[in-house]
Write a structure and sequence with these properties.
The complex is a heterodimer of chains A (about 180) and B (about 450). Chain A is mainly α. Chain A has one domain. Chain A has four helices and no strands. Chain A has helices spanning about 25-55, 65-85, 100-135, 150-175. In chain A, helix 3 (about 100-135) packs antiparallel against helix 4. Chain B has one domain (about 5-439). In chain B, about 80% of the residues lie in helices and about 0% in strands. Chain B is built from 22 helices and no strands. The termini of chain B are far apart. Classes of the chains: A mainly alpha (about 180), B mainly alpha (about 450). At the A-B interface, helix 1, helix 2, helix 3 and helix 4 of A face helix 2, helix 4, helix 5, helix 8 and helix 14 of B.
Amino acid sequence: MPLTGGDDASPTGGAPAEAEHGAPARIAGAVAIGGGLLSLAIALVVVVSVTLRSPLVGAAGVPGDFELVQMATAVSIFAFLPLTQARRANIVVDTFTLRLSARVRARIDAFWDVVYAAVAALIATSLIGGARDASASGTNTMVLALPISPAIAACAMLAAFLAAVAAWTGLRVWRAGGAA
Amino acid sequence: MSGVGLGLLGFTAMLLLVALRAPVGLSMFVVGALGYVHLSGLSPFLATMKTTPYFQFANYTISVVPLFILMGAFAERSGLATDLFSAARALVGHLRGGLAMAVLGACTIFGAICGSSVATTATFGRAALPELRRYGYDPGFATGTIAIGGVVDLLIPPSIILVVYAIATEQNIAKLFQAALIPGLMAVAFYAIVIAIVVRRDPTLAPVQPRAARGEFARLLLRVWPFLVTIIVVIGGIYGGIFTPTEAAAVGTVAMLLVGLLQRSLGLTQIRESLVQTAETSGMIFVILLGSEVFNSFLALSGLPAQGAELVTSLGLPPYAVVACLLAFYVLLGAVMDELAMILLTLPVFFPIVSALDLGLTPDEVGLWFGILVLVVVGIGLTAPPIGLNVFVVSAIAKDVPISATYRGVLPFIAADLVRLALLVLFPGVTLFLVRLLA
């Protein structure tokens, strides 16, 4: 299927059980569910805020709801990325490489997984620097005066985990060599 | 090498990596990063990387993407599609082609909750396709109708692709949703006409089935009304300016969860699956958004988008011809690659060109109008050979139907799409009517 490179990626998300094999994939699944629950928490905060502000209640909304949504969105997105990689669901165009043997394609995929791991590692180290800067300068959000460095640091950790997952999928694809 | 030359080289290199199976987001990131470093040096790049990945996602507007996906995932698992299809069937199922019309009607309403065309195709492939087959519908006509039902979902707001377009071009999501409604309903009307014509020409494609039992429609309406109320609140709230899109998505997500829990259609397993689906689909989108952010910074530094726009304007081509060329290019590109990726790859260069054209519209209106045109083209790309993602999805479900039969089934609908596209290009007022009315 040209939509994704995933052998086990399914457009509806109901991936087959073999997608969950291996500890990294299972952890990625748990982390992603954590991110999903965070999204659900965002939704609840916004709903409470909207309800409070409605003419029926007429109160002020949840103070700083905007900032909470921003922070939680960033962290939840970084929590999603490892699962997307573990299931190899990233969008890949395979129209032009269909004639290559499965083995060659697996080698190419493994190579890009390693590149992805390197990019994720770069993002992780950069974000650690960003979190340090934010902590040193005491950067806080406007309304609630929450420090943003922990949120950036959390994203850095998740990016580091993404790097590990990408390296793991690369190794797995290389070993399978298109046989899977 | 000049900045523009470097921009062109970067663009080519990026497409080359994509052709070599590099994930689209990764290709954009890698080439964008190398180009940025070449133009500005390593330190400025590393400095932006300290904050860009965080602040790009710590964004209130962007939170609508996972929320709308989660809302659709809950609706999908609560069995809404089956109920909607059954209700529509009770209403029109006894007409010739009635089951196909029922798919169309159910997809229209489902599309107002679910923002993903592929998810809708898969859902209706499971919910409605067996019924169509059971009543002796021609296999290709049945699968073609399901694939087209997914396109309806794409056009009816909320639509994830439209949100991505809004983020990429900094357009107002609420206004884009307003602009999408009339073209979306036009699609439904056109598809219904196609069904009517097709089954009239060949009645064997769609055998008539008996009229539903009395009270069947009312019984089903009793089940789906909470969903209908949610749709009215979510879409109406956005149109009326009562909710921001994020607020509407949050309200819709929580409402879908509550309805599912109260109707006992959502258990822990379904909730878990919904969260995982949301993570996977959102992750796929956000990897590309991050890559495109880096790639766009590089392109902007190279000056390619601005110079490209200047060049096209200086050539003095008729503006509508330029738009037509860009859309034709999209149809071709959509035949070989994923639509979401296609939009994010090309908009940094195409959008400044379109914005620079003198079309007799305000810049905002051009942005909205072009967004809807792109959406229509994406719809064509989702069903047209040789790729057509929706066709693949329905084929994966109906394994006994040859893919060529499905392609034959969607062809009349694609013809209708091309007519609609031409109308929307020639008469921007159709798209902009609701936006102007609600302004």
